[in-house]
Automatic annotation (TrEMBL):
This is phosphoenolpyruvate--glycerone phosphotransferase. One of its GO terms (cellular component) is cytosol. It comes from Pectinatus brassicae. InterPro entries: DhaK_L_YcgS (IPR012737), DhaL_dom (IPR004007), DhaL_dom_sf (IPR036117), Dihydroxyacetone_Kinase (IPR050861). Its EC number is 2.7.1.121.
Length: 206
């Protein structure tokens, strides 16, 4: 599935370009979210280049998740690794991308992140973006929309979710140590999740 590989290459390049921004947003945490995301995506893309067969969505996501797990410490590595690995586990060998399948993969990823991070919406984390994004693909929201239209809606939902993180205190990670003083700051994990959704949309436009 070279199209999936091309999309991931595009997303990886965009996240890596925003490394400094993500590190700055993480100034109330460990100041390394951008550095870690760049390291993870670099490792993931290198591993994908080594694959002889890119036809399996399951294998591609497993490869990315494993690369994140093995190359990044801190909070972001295990959480993004879990998201990709849970999505991979929800695939069969013939999974293709349509609204129904994307909803299933996103649901698996979100539930995995919730369990791994012992977190939920409203705690100033990546879930404040990922949960609204997932909702855009559910039957009640997707209705008769195309996959592209659902992704377009997901970009807006992701931006709204990121903006929401500025209005609430952090309850997870090092940023939680400063409590109410974290209000006014966007969550770096929410930002990296937004970038990924936005760049998937941008990739599909062309």
């Amino acid at each position: 599935m070279t199209r999936l590989k091309d999309a991931l290459d595009h997303i990886a390049e965009a996240v890596i370009k925003q490394r400094d921004l993500l590190d700055r947003l993480d100034s109330i945490g460990d100041s390394d979210h951008g550095t870690n995301m760049a390291r993870g995506f670099t490792a993931a893309m290198e591993e994908l280049e080594r694959l002889n067969d890119l036809s399996s969505t399951k294998v591609v996501f497993e490869t990315v998740g494993t690369a994140f797990a093995e190359s990044i410490g801190g909070a972001s590595g295990p959480l993004y690794a879990t998201a990709f690995l849970r999505a991979a586990a929800a695939c069969d060998e013939n999974t293709t991308f349509n609204v129904e399948n994307v909803e299933k993969l996103l649901n698996a990823a979100v539930e995995g992140v919730k369990r791994r991070g012992h977190s939920d919406a409203g705690e100033k984390t990546m879930l404040d973006v990922l949960i609204p994004v997932h909702k855009c693909f559910t039957p009640e929201e997707a209705k008769d929309k195309t996959l592209y239209q659902c992704i377009e809606a997901a970009v807006k939902a992701a931006k709204d979710g990121l903006d929401y993180t500025k209005t609430i205190p952090a309850k997870k990670g090092r940023a939680s140590y400063i409590g109410e003083r974290s209000i006014g700051h966007e969550d770096p994990g929410a930002m990296s999740s937004l970038i990924m959704v936005r760049e998937l949309f941008n990739f599909l436009k062309y």
